[in-house]
Structure formats: structure tokens, C-alpha cells
């Protein structure tokens, strides 16, 4: 049974940093495309940062480019999202997702792709 679990969310002041982690079990992590999505209250889900299926390319939404960094440690079955220079508009529930498809990061994120496996989310709140 595949499980995807996020952690690391919390309350931070504007300009601060957080690092989210996502641990996946029950799957061969190397074989999966991974991504971070977020959903703010009253808004649609947005792809924030996504790896391609090969892990060779990364897509970032314009709203996070230059501030967020996605990375993965295949040996630890863990995906990360380093978030710097946080803004109040980054406040959202952040979700980690895993998929066995063969798409680019751009396709996954910009099409708000329905990955096969999703975590329950971790809340990030940025105060002004």
C-alpha cells in the first residue's frame, strides 16, 4: 500500500523560510515523478514545483520561481520543498504527489495533473 506523508508546515512571518518534507512508502521511489501542489482557501489547486518523470527537469510556477527549491533524496524516499522569502500569499495547504507517468514537470504542474498518489497535506501560514 502506497503512503505519502508530508511534514514541516507551520506558521512563519513574511520573509521567513520553511522546508517541507514528503516521505513515500510502498513504492519504488526512483520510478516515480514527484511534485508539490498547494491550495489556498477559495482558490484552485496550483502546481508549485514538479519533477519530470526522469527527474532530469523541474518546473516552477512563476509565483514561486526564485524562492522555492524542490529536491529529492531517492535513498531516503523523500521529497523536499525549501521555501524562502515567504509571502502571505504563499499561505495554503501544501500537498505532495507521486505518479508513474512519463511526463515533463511542466506538463504535470501546469496542467494540475491528477497524480496517482497524494498526501494529506501540511498547512503553511505566512503572517504579514
Detailed description of the structure:
The model has no long low-confidence stretch (mean pLDDT 95). The longest helix is centred in the last third of the chain and has 6 residues, at 105-110. The protein is mostly beta strands. The protein has one helix spanning 105-110, and strands at residues 3-7, 10-13, 18-25, 33-39, 46-51, 58-60, 68-73, 78-83, 92-99, 117-118, 122-127. Helix content is 5%, strand content 48%. It has one helix and eleven strands. Strands 2, 4, 5, 6, 9, 10 and 11 form a seven-stranded mixed beta sheet that branches. A four-stranded antiparallel beta sheet has the order 1-3-8-7, with no helix packed on it. 33% of the residues are buried.
In brief:
It is built from one helix and eleven strands. With 128 residues, the chain is mainly β.
* Number of β-strand runs: 11
Elements, N to C (H/E): EEEEEEEEEHEE
Q: How many H/I helical runs? A: 1
Structural class, by secondary structure, is mainly beta
- Fraction of residues in β-strands: over 45%
Task: State the end-to-end distance.
Answer: 41 Å
Helix content: under 10%
**pLDDT averaged residue by residue:** 95
Structural Rg: 13 Å
Low-confidence stretches: none
What overall form do the CA principal axes indicate?
A: globular
Q: What features would you highlight for this structure?
A:
single chain, mainly beta, four-stranded antiparallel sheet, seven-stranded mixed sheet, 11 strands, 128 residues
List the helices and strands and how they pair.
Elements: E1 3-7, E2 10-13, E3 18-25, E4 33-39, E5 46-51, E6 58-60, E7 68-73, E8 78-83, E9 92-99, H1 105-110, E10 117-118, E11 122-127
Parallel strand pairs: 2-11
Antiparallel strand pairs: 1-3, 3-8, 4-5, 4-9, 5-6, 7-8, 9-10, 9-11
